[in-house]
Amino acid sequence: MTNLNKAAITAVGGYVPETILDNAQLEKMVDTSNEWIVARTGINERRILSNPEKATSDMAAEAVKNLLASSGINPAEIECLILATSTPDKLLAPTAPVVCDKAGLTNAWGFDLNAACSGFLYALSVGSSLIESGRHKKVLVIGADAMSRIVDYTDRNTCILFGDGAGAVLLEPSADYGLQDFILKTDGAGSEFLSIAVGGSLNPFHEDTLQERQHFVRQDGKTVFKNAIAGMTGVCTEITDRNTLAAEDIDWVIPHQANIRIINAVADNLKMPMDKVKVNIQRYGNTTAATIPLCLWDFQADFKPGDKLLLTAFGAGFTFGSSYLVWGN
Ligand code: UT7
Fold this sequence. Notes:
Blueprint: E1 6-15, E2 20-22, H1 23-29, H2 34-41, E3 45-47, H3 56-71, E4 80-84, H4 96-102, E5 109-113, H5 119-132, E6 139-146, H6 156-159, E7 164-174, E8 178-186, E9 194-195, H7 207-211, E10 218-219, H8 221-242, E11 252-255, H9 260-269, H10 281-284, H11 291-299, E12 308-315, E13 319-326
Parallel strand pairs: 4-5, 4-6, 11-12
Antiparallel strand pairs: 1-7, 2-3, 6-7, 8-13, 9-10, 12-13
The structure holds oxa(dethia)-CoA (UT7).
């Protein structure tokens, strides 16, 4: 009997809102310039969920519907949905059940997972374990974030970076292909460098902190920048060494899209030519948990069965990780 002990990505879906926020518009909102943003980040524009009645669950549900439509999978077949997000619809209740409802996944249970920009990789690891254990045969893993809802559009340090979007993958058992390995790490000492100070159990909302705009994301960009390069380089080196892979054995690198200079530096450290590194930050900015699945969605036509993919992310927490994946199903 064939041993179907790996979890393969068998379908991909995505969604970005229609509204575009480009650098020229940001020039009118804060003291910045198109030249600075492009040179320092590689971002030209981002998508914004401009409809105030829509939320993260709507983008995630659209990504799921896109995946189901393109793969012909019946929504009732989905058994579990893991939603990686830092921008749930509400602090309570969880958003995953809302996504199941909106996407018509009548037989799925689901839960949210918050690991910021590394959330999709963490969720992929949990989802692949559910497949490998034999407990489930069809698991959806989503990365979705409505960053425009937590970004301060008077703070030029952060508002130029982030955008909104959602990407989804379906995991199914496979004998030959799929997720081979993960290295996932956390460093809680980095928590203060990228966070929202208020609104959680440590500092509940208060009218004073609202006036001080403390309910928005704040970041020490330089510290995060340095740690992101070191963190992603480290976990990528560790996973390639552990799987006896040289740089030339890797066909594609799918990095978290936070800053083109971070991506270039990690690729350089890994001696990976940039034509193997997938980049769409210029169009979407940093969509937090959605960057990696949106890259898989954008570039899936380039991946051939048997291609070796290296996924890596770094984010608030700090959280970081890498995954080695053999494409195909
Ligand atoms: O998803 C994971 C989490 N996030 C990240 O990985 C992001 C990590 N950090 C970064 O990408 C970069 O640190 C930033 C893009 C946020 C900032 O780039 P930087 O090269 O580290 O710039 P900086 O903070 O050192 O600022 C350089 C200068 C400063 O002016 P002075 O002090 O040299 O006069 C800033 O005030 O650029 C100024 N500046 C800006 N100027 C125009 C900062 N933001 C802007 C802006 N437009 N938007």
